[in-house]
Design goal:
The chain has 526 residues and is α+β, with helices and mostly antiparallel strands. Helix content is 29%, strand content 26%. Among the domains are: 50 residues, SH3 type barrels (Roll), CATH 2.30.30; 118 residues, Periplasmic binding protein-like II (D-Maltodextrin-Binding Protein, domain 2); 159 residues, OmpA-like domain (60s Ribosomal Protein L30, Chain: A).
Length: 526
Amino acid sequence: MRCLPGILLCAALCLPVARPALAGDVTLMSRDGAVEIGGHLLDFDGGTYRLDTIYGPLAVNADAVTCKGAACPGAEARVARFALSGTPALGAVAMPALIEGFAAARGMTVERAADGRRGLFRLRDPDDGTLRAEIALTTGSTGEGFADLLTGGADIAMADRAILPEEVAHGREAGLGDLSASHRRRLIALDAIVPVVAPDPRMGDPGRGLTLETLRGLLTGEIVDWSRIGGAEAPVTPHLPRPGAGLGRTPEARLLEGQAPGSSARQHADAAAVSGAVAADPMGVGLTRLSALGGAVQVPLAAGCGTRLLASRQGIKTGDYPFVVPLFLYLGAPQLPSLAGAFLDYLATPAAQIAMRRAGFADLMREEIPLARQGDRLALAIAEAAPGSGLAELQRMMSVLRGAVRLTETVRPGPETDEALSQSGIEALARALEAGTFDGHTLILAGFADGGDGPDADRALARKDAEAVRDALRAAATAADFGRVRLEVVAFGALLPLACTGGLPEDRLPEAMAHRLNRRVEIWLR
């Protein structure tokens, strides 16, 4: 037997059988007639034949062969079918565009249809119209997506948050295993929760920003008139997603910290509706997604010492903006049709990521941020430098980072969502290391922390975090040649803060949030 690339997917493996066994022997022949494989057909998922042969279990790409024998699956069985369900942040615009792009990349046409509340995308061969795949898409909420996953109504859940512990427990009870495992999720893009006002608001100048405390006061009804914060005498009208949209479980709830919206709050179906309503209401203020900003104006968050945090593509990728929304796909079954696997792989391609950027999301493509672009942070670092050794430490940092660029991958210890984002960043760096992307260069793992226990304790914590990232990269990049790239661990403690912990309390982030934002491991390339 002669093996041709792309035909044989794997050999001599213990392959799980996801469907009832198919009785009978078949012969698979490559389309050029050069390879012939015979054996007992164990399973067919619409894209992959699994055979028991004299060479052991084999998996063969259906696109590369023709099947002969009475046990060969019929045309209907050769259609790959899978279903997605979940957040409209992905399901409304982005996912249909991604399905269209995937079909075009594989030379297939797309036919749209509907089945009740589900959209159907039928992918066909353009030459003879043969149906190759049928993808079902249901939009509701992240919670509904996970519910559909548990009941078998979906194979993939679209989520705008990390899976909750109770959802993980329900998944185990349903026989789906550990849905929180890293191999069961795919991070495909990022978004952010941002406060917004109208282009001509009664609050005055939006550029001066709002403290988190003030923003919560406006949304919960504690502050009922714009004059309370220096604006015109006019009542405040809060705009938020409606309760039916699952506000208590959405990323917006992180900003409200469990506080209920004020009685005057107007509630809307989704983020886009919030943006539209706020844009048309000079007395309005609301929370929306950056991807759905529309005609509303983003208001910066005051971070102390005169600094402001504004959601931008790079700020979202680095996590330097505090309310990042990860967009995940969670896989209900460890084994999906091969075409579904190809679709998931497509989502990581530049073409798919560019489509996500065009849809308003922050893509996952790596970006480089020069040291010269760190002006605001350096100014804050100088202002916050500790007496005595502060200037010497700044000089040491500049000496280490001179000539290097910061990569957008940033690792932050923290709650589950941050851990999921950080793990995805480590996995992306590990793949780049294995591909030789950084060969001949130095990756500087720069730790920062401002725990408040003094410079020595801050540097010790920062070094511990940076060493943990180094160890995680080495463990994940098993195929990398570390003789061709250097990993350098450095610790700068409280230098280069993103949020100021000094200044007036009414002009800064809550202390715990500022510490969480400032504690990070940045990746620099030299």
